[in-house]
Amino acid sequence: MRYTNDRRKKKKLQTTLQLMDIKEIDQSSVITPDGQRISFILITPVNMSVLSDEVVAGRISALANILTSIENLQILCLNASQSYEKNKEHLAAQMKTETNEVLAELDRKDIEYLDDIRISMATGREFAFAVRFKKNIGRPQQEQTLKRLLLILLEAGFTARIAEEQELKGILAIYFAQDIYNDYWPDFDGEEILSPAEAKQEKSFLELIAPSIIDFRRQRYYVCGNTQRTVWAVRGYPTTTKDQTIFRELGEKDGVTLHIYTRPVGSYETNKILERAERRNRHMLNNSSRIKEKVEAESNMQDVQLLIENMHRSKEPFLHCAVFIEMAAGNDKALELLQGDVAAILNRHKILYDKLFLQQKEGMISAMPTGQNLFENQFERVLPASSVANMFPFSYSGKTDPQGMYIGRDANGSNIIVNFDQRGQDKTNGHIIILGNSGEGKSFLLKILSCIFRQSRKNLYILDPENEYKELTEALGGTYMDMMTGKYIINPLEPRLWNQEPVSELESPDTPKAFFKPLRINQHIAFLRDFFSAYKPFPTEQLDTLEIMLELLYKEFHITEETDYSRLRSSDYPILTDLYKLMTRELENYEEKAETGLVVYRKETLRELCLGLHGICTGAESVYFNGYTNIPNAKHIDFGVKDMLSTNQSLSNAMYFNILSFMSHKFLTEGDTNICCDELHELLKNRIAISYLLSFIKRGRKRGSNVILASQNVSDFFLPEIVEYTKPLLSIPTHRFLFYPGSCDTEEYKRVLGVSDSEYRVIQNPNRGHCLYSCGNERYHLHVIAPKYKKALFGTAGGA
């Protein structure tokens, strides 16, 4: 009996392997039992849902050229494994060396979370072109054809590569065995512990992935392993359509395999097809007694005439095209729902389909990745190349960067995992700008990013006008400082580094003078001119006098061009009372010095300067500035400046500038530092502050440092008097998160931000937590999501 069961199992396995129609897999192709080779070129898709109509039309035109350049090309859209191994390895490496227990625990939970979403969002999508080579075509010719196709794809703007052995195995393992959990597939069972000689009795890769059962006894579907599947064939298309990329939704739908076959139509065959269509419709028009048939015939004649005119004008070739759609699910209810979704998509585009009753076996062989069109010309339709290209299924809305971190999902349900430090031709920096109306989720996103930056070992300094990040900062082991209590002071007279490299001659004339000076002391004196100008609008003569006073002050404290700043403590630098004492002393001794002829400033100018600086040096406002820097050397500081917004503009400007000077020093000297400025619109009135921010943005890339800007009043950026200054703030950052903008000039918004109509539609209505995420050339309709364990750290302030 056992012998009989073994024979049955072996026979069933042989039958399954025969259906799979695969003999072996080599480095770049799948080989069939009759000696044919099938090679795949994998395509990295783009998110078509947010691209403009013009860009989409360009992609379709490029695909049409490809389909006419290579004969018998097949297009495949398949389920694929969504591997997060590189992300998990990166997190595990961080966790091993992380000394902050909270951050190490976040790394551990992030690894678990990636496993969870890989299971719940079981698959990604794979897109490919397939080429089947007949047995009589030699390997050199095959390789030449593949290289030619790859070159054509790359020149057309596609990101493509030839599939290698492990990728081919992955395609087959996921299709036949639903194996979405492995990232490596052995040639035989036990490969890691057995020698090839010992493995002869073990199962081969094909036996390992072969479904336990393939049963075609049902009318409407078949059973394949632990899935129920059904295959449909497309049998008719609308004569004309304004829709673009009509198979885009099918291309990225989980559980759907799309297999498109194409082959060329010769010129003689084209003429015959058109002649037959003309005769058939003309006969119906002249001989039918039914009005409906006459109307249809007349309409068809017009279509044929239009088709011939277009073909004559554009010289566009025709293609035979057959499309098979396979749907797979774990049970009959899920399969029924999936069929309903697919039917809705096809009906919306007026596409006719055949459910292949009692023909599911032929349907499976036609739909599977290594299959053949067993129906031959039954479901083939002759279409212009542009119409075949308009099926364009290469769209996927997910994003998984190596070493990236999870920030949410695309509106279509695919995960968005981003590495903000990843560079490419379209990603030249890691700067970020977040724009949107109040209450749309900007602060929530910033809290997610704060966790990511700290987990990535970045120093993080936040300018927090609403005290929204205090609880998160403290939960992550950072330091919160309420800068309006006077407890914490940043000494504005402590020289800080503003630039470490020579400034290019091409530098913008609006760049602050501090960045042009070669030495640290000179850089800081130039900065202090801007700092005190932000505090009060001192005239040029007073600022020149102030510069002289500062030079005298630093000489008194023995701070010169040769000073080794690494040996100085905070208490070794002058403070504002020292400056004020020097100015009053110079004022008292003015006549005595004037007699020597060495004084170049007027006494009245110095007196007015003393009066103007009294408040910040020794008066009521000195509590925020006069003293030695006592900011701890922390890697994560939240500068709370909530009450600063309600104080006078002079004090507010000076506070902003002083904090920015501290941030800039860390930004340029330590590197790997992120500066976050929330409520940026509060700074926009100050052109000098904007120019400093722009200089940070330009110089941060080389130090691994980034600037994160967030603002709600988008219209403030478009004010005529400052729009030329704010444009670079909006255009330079690689990463842009655009939420619903609220009330603003829509056309001006799209013009300044370079947002297309299709992109703006994503954010034209309020939808909390949803935004348009732009990353270089990539676009996503992002739903910002934080895992529960991270959200628990956010606290109760805004963005919770």
Automatic annotation (TrEMBL):
Phylogenetic classification of the source organism: Bacteria, Bacillati, Bacillota, Clostridia, Eubacteriales
Domain spans labelled Helicase HerA central: 429-585
Organism from which the protein derives: [Clostridium] leptum DSM 753
Pfam families registered for this protein in UniProt: DUF87 (PF01935)
Domain of life: Bacteria
SUPFAM superfamilies: P-loop containing nucleoside triphosphate hydrolases
Name of the protein in its database record: Helicase HerA central domain-containing protein
InterPro entries linked to this entry: HerA_central, P-loop_NTPase, T4SS_component
